[in-house]
Amino acid sequence: MRIFRLLPALAVAVALASPAAFAKDWTKVVIATEGAYMPYNGHSPDGKLIGFEIDLGNNLCARLKIACEWVSQDWDGIIPGLTAGKYDAIMDGMSITAKRLEVLAFTRNYTRAPTVFAVQKDGPLANLPDDGLNVSLDDKTAMDAAVKALTPALKGKVVGAQIATIQADMLNTYFKGIVDIRTYKTTEEHDLDLMAGRIDAALAATSYFVSTLARPGGDKLKLVGPHFTGGLLGLGTGIGFRKSDPELKTMFDKALNEALADGTIKKLSLQWFKTDISPPS
Amino acid sequence: MASYFTLIGFGPTGWGWQLVLATWMTLSVSASAFATGLVFGTAGAWAKLSRSRAARRAGDLYTTVMRGIPDLLVVYLFYFGGSEVLTSTARLFGQGGFWGLNSFMAGTLAVGIVSGAYQTEAIRGAYHAIPRGEIEAARAVGMPSLLMLRRIIAPRVLRFALPAMGNVWQSVLKESALISVTGLAEILREIHIGAGSTSRPFDFYLTGFALYLLLTTLSGVAFRGAESWTLRGERRA
Fold first, then answer.
1. What pTM, to 2 d.p., does this model score?
2. Is residue A57 helix, strand or coil?
3. CA A257, CA A249: separation in Å to the nearest integer?
């Protein structure tokens, strides 16, 4: 019996320990981001969150007249943290994919950057065929032709991608057995290995590689080969919610459409990415 | 491009203060985990040395399981699994919304319980190192067992367990890096944030390396000091 008298005390202790206990009337939304994926999101030296998604998210919350609180969370646990209820939304350069749609509700896309190979300028893959060609994974004949054209050059080469990303999926689906696939915990790690020459190419979004090319040693790299979009690469990045909160999706879809229509997304994209990766409305 | 010292310095564009805070966070989460482990370790050692068969079994189960599974899994279990259990328990009592341990508490508990298993063995080993004659002498003069625990066993165990405890502390310091997966801004997480935000991974990883080395070296010195302090008055062979 004594244990039951202890339970309220325990509940109070737990309530004090949990920062995110709140009512569900959406006057406030807690958004999680990695805070280490520039230019999408990152930290300034004084510990504040900065980046494209932080500006966009705050803009959307202002349109919706709700308060937004940001938490920074490691990418590894970002989806489990959402489903466990630690926060309400994810804005972390997260692509909308069929697999993720099984567990999350997504808004419309707010960026759509193609996926591309990065290689060393003087490396063996510097002249990959189909350079700059737009290839949609939805178009089976085009994709088959692209894989066929790339195969002789890529055969036996080592290609890196971040684990549990659409790029890793793309390598596993289309290039398994052709290239030696290395997966990394973070995109930076494959960049480091690419610069060190431990891998021959890295596969990621053009929007991400913008920052790679700008960093020390990035001048030795270049982007080559086709620009891949569609199919399992998804529809670009969107805001992810729990499936049990459809009203959040409706609210943010409306705000995103407004931000896209009045040019806010394009403006922020040019500011942070130096290139327009806003999606076609 | 900013120089290395501007980057990690304390100027307006330097990450110095963030790194100091992160180091402080690593120290506090490690100290809390170590203290938690001491509670579990003492209980575990008591169970393993107990005359009760059931207690010995429970103690064995605890050390076998906790030393046999990856620590990262325990962190995930507490951080993500813990909030699921708490939220559904809260619902049973008519409390909606989200309930969970924050990353500091979940991390402290996870690393603490794992280190408790190692501390159990350190304490148990130290108990066995007490010369039987000392305990027999205490009994012979009619010392009650609580007094014997306080005057003979506890001080002797503390002295014998100290070197092994130093090792456990070093591993707790390093395992605290696992808590970075919960987003707690300790050294590893802050280094990752800095590297991702500035595109200077090498500089930040090197700094992290140095910070951990600094902490482990300083605690090595502290434990050696404590060891020679406990050995004062001991005859040297």
1. 0.73
2. helix
3. 12
Edge-first strand listing for the sheet containing A158-162? A134-136, A221-229, A115-120, A201-205, A158-162, A180-184
Q: Per-residue confidence at A253, pLDDT binned at 50, 70, 90? A: very high
Angle between the A246-261 and A264-273 helix axes, to the nearest 10 degrees? 80
Give the nearest partner residue to A18 out of B15, B17, B98, using CB atoms: B98
CA dihedral A132, A134, A140, A146 (to 10 degrees): -10
Residue A122 burial (C-beta neighbours within 10 Å; 0-12, 13-18, 19+)? exposed
d(CA A262, CA A278): 12
Interface of B with A (CB under 8 A): 1, 12-15, 17-18, 21, 76, 79-80, 83-84, 86-87, 90, 93, 95-102, 105, 180-183, 185, 189, 192-202
Pair (A137, A224) in one structural domain: yes
From edge to edge, which strands make up the β-sheet containing A104-106? A67-72, A28-33, A89-90, A240-242, A104-106
**pLDDT tens track for B12-27:** 888 999 999 999 999 9
Residue numbers of the domain that contains A21: 11-112+235-273
Please tell me whether residues A207 and A121 are part of one structural domain.
yes
User: Rounded distance, CA B133 to CA A216, Å?
Assistant: 68
In a domain, A70, yes or no: yes
Domain match, A82 and A60 both: yes
- Out of B14, B192, B195, name the one closest to residue A45 (CB): B14
Residue A208 domain-assigned? yes
Q: Answer with the residue of higher pLDDT: A19 or A39.
A: A39
Residues A134 and A210 in one domain: yes
Structure tokens at A103: 């567990």
The number of distinct structural domains making up chain A is 2
| Element (DSSP H or E) covering residue B174 | helix B154-175
Say if residue A120 is in the same domain as residue A227. yes
Residue A21 has pLDDT above 50, yes or no: no
Nearest CA among A242, A22, A13, A88 for reference residue B95: A22
Q: Tell me, what's the ipTM?
A: 0.73
| Same domain as A222, residue A265 | no
Name the superfamily (CATH) of residues B31-185: MetI-like (1.10.3720.10)
**Band of the pLDDT at A11, cuts 50, 70, 90?**
low
Dihedral in degrees, nearest 10, Cα atoms B36, B38, B40, B41: 150
Position A278 in a domain: no
Same domain, A59 and A107: yes
Task: List the domain boundaries for chain B.
Answer: 31-185
Taking CB atoms and an 8 Å limit, are B100 and A80 in contact across chains?
Answer: no
Residue numbers in A near B185 (CB within 8 A): 72
A169 part of a folded domain? yes
For the stretch A150-171, pLDDT in tens is 999 999 999 999 998 889 999 9
**Is residue A228 domain-shared with residue A241, that is, in the same domain?**
no
Interface test with A, best of B108, B197, B206 (most A CBs within 10 A): B197
